[in-house]
Amino acid sequence: MKKFPILKIPDIVFREVTSMMTPIEIIKLAMSDFKMELWLQHQKYKILGICFVLTKDHPEVVTQTCYSYKDDGFLSVMFETTEDNKIKPITLEELDEEPSRILRVPLEELFSIYSRLTRIFLCPSHGWELQLDQLELSEFREYTERILTSEIHEFTVRGGSITNELLAELMDKLHENVELEIYSDIPLDYSHAKVSTKGSDP
User: Fold this and answer.
1) Where are the domains of the chain?
2) Is 105 in contact with 87 (CB distance < 8 Å)?
3) 134: exposed, middle or buried (Cβ count in 10 Å: 0-12, 13-18, 19+)
């Protein structure tokens, strides 16, 4: 079967075709070819939000297209390192089919992906979420140090317990325009205007 020359079709047709794609399909298309990625950057696809979720093993990107959890308003994709050291998007369904194949993606590669996706999607909210109970403290600090040097709207910490010392470190480094949300147990004697305390998940 011959490949469809999508880059050779008229611009208006290309826009129409890609406008019917989900954000995950756009991500897969962008990462399949460098020229395709550059082409997609000019389209500026509008979504409500994009968030990178960092866990110990399977970092993922969650895209938001509506305010409801119904009708696939939130879609996610993970990334794997292929045998030839290329980064490939992989959906949760694909991971379920072959759960042992996904390999950890280096941190700098994740930031490269984040930068690339923020040039493709035009959205009012983009940020990072760290799963505190799934990361070593040294990893959490390393990720935080790197994340807070980039341009973000939101920074979320979820799970586990966060100490006064660690929370103070976050507040010292956090830019005033970045919203910090804590979905972890925090000491009762800590308070700060920037912190929105939601408590731990049940």
Assistant:
1) 45-197
2) yes
3) middle
